Amino acid sequence: MNAVLGAGSTISERLGATGTANALEMKGVSKYFGALAALSDVDITVRPSERRAVLGSNGAGKTTLFNCVAGDFPSTTGTIRFFGEDITQFPPHERIRRGLRRTYQISLLFTGLTVLDNIFLACVGVSRSRFSFLQPGRDDALMASAENLMRVVHLEDARDEQVATLSYGQQRQLEIAMALAGAPRFILFDEPAAGLSPAERSELIEILMGLPAHMGFIIIEHDMDVALRVAESVTMMHNGRIFKEGSPAEIEDDPEVQALYLGGDDG
Amino acid sequence: MSVFDPAETGLAAASDGRSWLERIPVAYWVVGLVLLIMPAIAGDFMLFQIFGWTFILGLIALGLMFLGGYGGMVSLAQMSIAGVGGYMVAIFGVSAIDTISLGWPWYVAIPIALVIAMLFGTLTGWLAVRTEGIYTIMITLAIAAAFFYFARQNYVVFNGFSGFNGVLPPMLFGVDWRGPAAFYYLTLFWAALGYLVVLYISRAPFGLALQGVRDNPRRMSALGYNVTAHRVAAYTFAALLAAIGGILLTWQSAQISPGTAGIGPAIDILVIAVIGGMRHPVGPFIGAFIYVILKTYAIDALVTLGLSGERFQLLIGVAFLSIVFWSPDGIIGLWDRLREDRKRDPLTGRGGEGP
Are A148 and B233 in contact (CB < 8 Å)? Predict the structure, then answer.
């Protein structure tokens, strides 16, 4: 355990660190399911505004990595720092309140609610109105920001439609809108392009490229075209380990990566 | 991210140009009017025993509907919380057992009773939210049983088996609130208020989030919600509804004893909520009305048929079984389905609302 900025640090120490700290810093993170190592000894460092793609075959540990960072389940060993703060032991909602966001590979939406209600819930979740017994008024700031996010992901035509009636692509866009609620500092996108049509893909790329420059993210993506267009750096994972890190060009030209991807030793 | 653009506000909430008064459905006006003029139509027994009791049980079951319908948590401790409310009013306020009752004025005793009942409900929730489904039912049933036996065996505070009698509502505004019409309006007021508040909260952030927690706790957590805290808070609010109902119930019979909050009544609240339907706050009141009618007239009906009057529980059981069998959503589910069938095209079988 790194004691420099642990739970015993003073506020000024922590504040001093946030200015220079990396958005995400994972050291020696492992996750075991019984004897199976889904992640083993992963070290990753991502700068605050960096856009990183994580590639790898099925079972490489990409989604497990996200689950450990977002706290869906805790890592077995290692430490995770978010903008300098040790969040390893934090429950998911505490991590989210600190500006971390994630989307899910298989959309986890509230299918009985409307599009706007889904985004509104996301906006409320990172506000102080979580326990408010008062309905949003005509000029409610959270409702207004929800309406705005709806436009960011081009869903204004589906405003009052039940999520269950949306197309698959629209549900993926809604996932993204919900991850943008509040003031995200860093976002984890879990295969946002999976299952999208080519037209929807380019719309997704447009949305991702349109994010404010200071907002870093990690994107898990099978589609190299999407991944390499939105990301400035790439991490290759294989069998729960970090396999290669580098710029998109380096990764594309790497003979080992090519062997892995084209040779396909484990599919 | 500067997602919030102040220039683009003002289009929230579906505003169709009508005032909130005009948007109230016709059914509300009709039901509201009938309920308001009821004392002119119905006799004293109907007002005090049938409607008063319906509103009280409906209010207690409304708390369960809030927990179950919006939160996905079924608690059997609602009646115990109502019992705590009733007991506390008797203990801190005035009763015939003046060796125990403190005799404090109602404006002190009632708030204390509500707060203690809510604390009890919060504690129940805090224990129960660690479990799911059948285990929540078991743990809350255990709490209900524990409270019943504790109240029956404790003579220092709860006065044991006999409990407290002579617990009367205050003579506020010079009205005897146990008079049939006065009690009718008193219970109607609290039932209507509870109903409207629950309906309102279901669209407020707290209620929306509770429904989110019901449908997908993991996602709610990933949106920044403390799922456990939200669930416990729902128990606290449900306890407030139960406590108000418990105090009214105590006033109605002018007494509170362990039997009021026994295992039987605890299960009756669940039966009421299920008969009526858990999807909408009107359900518990429909369920309570059916329950009260059956409980009151089943004996007479059975005797008329030449059967033994003691078997009235059988009728309630049969009603419960058939409603659950035909409509898992209770009476309101049945109603919804009838309405949908009417809209359906008799030839194509298609629904009336779009594809």
Answer: no
pLDDT confidence of residue A262? 60
Question: CA gyration radius for chain B?
Answer: 22
Dig out the tokens for B15 from the structure: 């505003």
Q: A125–B224: do the CB atoms touch at under 8 Å?
A: yes
pLDDT at A4 over 60: no
Asked if the C-beta of B99 comes within 8 angstroms of chain A's C-beta atoms, the answer is no
Contact B3 A152 (CB under 8 A): yes
Instruction: Provide the ipTM.
Output: 0.80
> How long, in residues, is chain B?
355
- Confidence band for A266, pLDDT divided at 50, 70 and 90: very low
**Which of B66, B70, B206, B219 is most worth mutating to test chain A (most A CB atoms within 10 A of its CB)?**
B219
Distance from CA of A94 to the nearest CA of B (A): 7
Nearest CA distance, A189 vs chain B (angstrom): 13
How far B217 CA lies from chain A's nearest CA (Å)? Answer: 10
Question: Count of residues for chain A?
Answer: 267
Long-range contacts of A155-161 (CB under 8 A, 24+ apart): A155/A115, A158/A115, A159/A114, A159/A115, A159/A116, A160/A114, A160/A115, A160/A116, A160/B14, A161/A114, A161/A115
With CB atoms and an 8 Å threshold, state whether A149 touches B3.
Answer: yes
pLDDT at site B346 = 59
Q: How many CA atoms lie within 13 A of B317 on its CB side?
A: 5
Nearest CA in chain A to B215: A110
Quote the minimal CA–CA distance from A82 to chain B in Å.
Answer: 16
B217 touches chain A (CB under 8 A): no
- 3-state class (DSSP) for residue A98: coil
Tokens of B321: 């079984």
Supply the pLDDT for residue B67. 93
Alpha helix (H) residue ranges in chain B: 26-41, 44-45, 52-65, 78-92, 106-128, 134-153, 180-201, 205-215, 217-221, 227-253, 263-276, 283-304, 312-326, 330-343
Does residue B14 belong to the interface with chain A, where contact is any CB pair within 8 Å?
Answer: yes
- Give the Cβ contact number of residue B235 at 10 Å: 30
Token pair of B182 as six digits? 């006065």
Instruction: Sketch out chain A's domains with CATH numbers.
Output: 1-99+185-267 (3.40.50.300), 109-183 (no CATH)
**If you measure CA to CA, which chain B residue comes closest to A129?**
B205
B33-49 pLDDT, tens digit each:
887 777 778 787 777 78
Q: What is the mean pLDDT of residues B11-35?
A: 67
- pLDDT score at A267: 39
